[in-house]
Amino acid sequence: MIDVRLDASALAQVRLSVSPAFEAIAWLRLAANGRHHPVYGDPGPAARLALRDRDVALVAQTLLPGGNGGYTLDLLTPKPWIGPVASILDRQLGVMTETPPDVVAYQLCPGRFPVGRMPVDVRTAMEDGTFAGRAADGLLRFWRTVFAELWPGVRSTLETDLAARATVIGAAGIGRMLGTLHRDLDWTGSHLSVGTTAYQEIFDLDGAELVLCPTAVGWPQLAAQCCDPSDAVLVYPANGLVPTRPAPDSGLPELVGSSRAAILRDLGVARSTHELSTRWRLAPATVSYHLGVLLRSGLVSRRRDRRVVFYHRTEQGDAVLGLRDSVLQK
Q1: Keyword DNA-binding: yes or no (predicted)?
Q2: How far apart are CA 329 and CA 182, in angstroms?
Q3: Distance between CA atoms of 270 and 237, rounded to whole angstroms?
Q4: Phi, psi of 283 (to 5 degrees)
Q5: What is the pLDDT, as a whole number, of residue 58?
Q6: CB 328 within 8 A of CB 180
């Protein structure tokens, strides 16, 4: 269990934010480990191809289960700054690049990699002081070539969660909101207890800022990053995401892949193929294919308005995304 203690000053500074770096790292972790996301599906061939890049591979080697036991280097997921969402990633990459070599070495200490198992490229970059800069370059390259396509849909999910949390704060106070983040997270009035880890640690954030970041790609992860009080982050699973468990003969086994899931989330309002193609920077033929799968699965409906066909998410589509229940549950 991890206890994160907050005094009155720290509690007053608690804020909510998206963390683009965390979401991209979570997607990279899935690709590096050959795993699928329960909602967004397979990271895809583009993600696997990106792993051939030297700097992307450097980051990926720190995310493999045989290397660090699931620990994510704090330097890879810096605290989001206060500012426009569009500029958060740039600021996070800047902070990552400026990580001092001694901090890099501490986070890559032998406890993270059993003796003799630290990858040669990781050790070399650590010892010559290039790890932080190369990691930032690798994450940026992965973002541009792979994750940028998925980000608009992920961002929409995260911002929907943040709006719901803000509503709870306005109606019942920040203490009540903290109690709704996760069933394994307890707010006692003075500290947060994270009960989903084997670690036994206590962090005092007296007078420090704690940033609460929902995660969609890292769902259902709950994690505390508090070793450095100036970089304190609590990541919790975004509300409303549920794994797709298709019914027999429903056609849902075809619902795999980040683009299709993103399009489904974007159809809370009626949109045309052309509009979706523009919004997601996909070829019209690709959008038409995804819409056909969603239509056969019963997740979207369509209607014609003169010469334009509009698609809209159905109640079944809402249920797949977990949007039928708007109540935040602990």
Answers
A1: yes
A2: 8
A3: 28
A4: -65, 145
A5: 97
A6: yes
Torsion of CA 309, 313, 316, 319, to 10 degrees: 170
Tell me how far apart the alpha carbons of residues 257 and 21 are, in angstroms, rounded to a whole number.
Answer: 21
- pLDDT tens per residue across span 129-143: 999 999 999 999 999
Dihedral sign, Cα of residue 222, residue 218, residue 95, residue 107: positive
Range 2-23 burial, b when 16+ CB lie within 10 A, else e: bbbbbeeebbeebebbbbbbbb
Q: What is the pTM of this model?
A: 0.74
Cβ contact 268:50 at 8 Å:
no
Among 42, 81, 61, which residue's Cα sits nearest to residue 230? 81
**Which residues touch 79 (CB under 8 Å, ≥6 apart)?**
95, 209, 211, 230, 231, 232, 233
- Helix, strand, coil shares of the chain, percent, nearest 5, are 45, 15, 40
The candidate with the shortest Cα–Cα distance to 256, out of 7, 9, 29, 42, is: 42
Number of CB atoms found within 10 A of residue 103's CB: 15
CA-CA distance, 238 to 247, in Å (whole number)?
24
Q: 152 preceded by cis ω (within 30°)?
A: no
Averaged pLDDT, 164-176: 92
* Chain position carrying tokens 């899935």: 30
Q: Which CATH fold would you assign to the domain 252-320?
A: Arc Repressor Mutant, subunit A (1.10.10)
Any residues with CB less than 8 A from the CB of 38 and at least 6 apart, and which?
A: 219, 241, 242, 243, 244
Q: What's the pLDDT tens digit per position in 200-257?
A: 789 999 999 999 999 999 988 888 999 999 999 999 999 866 554 444 334 443 444 6
**Residue 225, both tokens:** 């990053």
Q: Which amino acid is at 139?
A: L
The residues facing 16 across adjacent strands are 212
> Residues for the chain: how many in total?
330
Which tokens in the block code for residue 167? 């509503």
Domain ranges across the chain: 2-237, 252-320
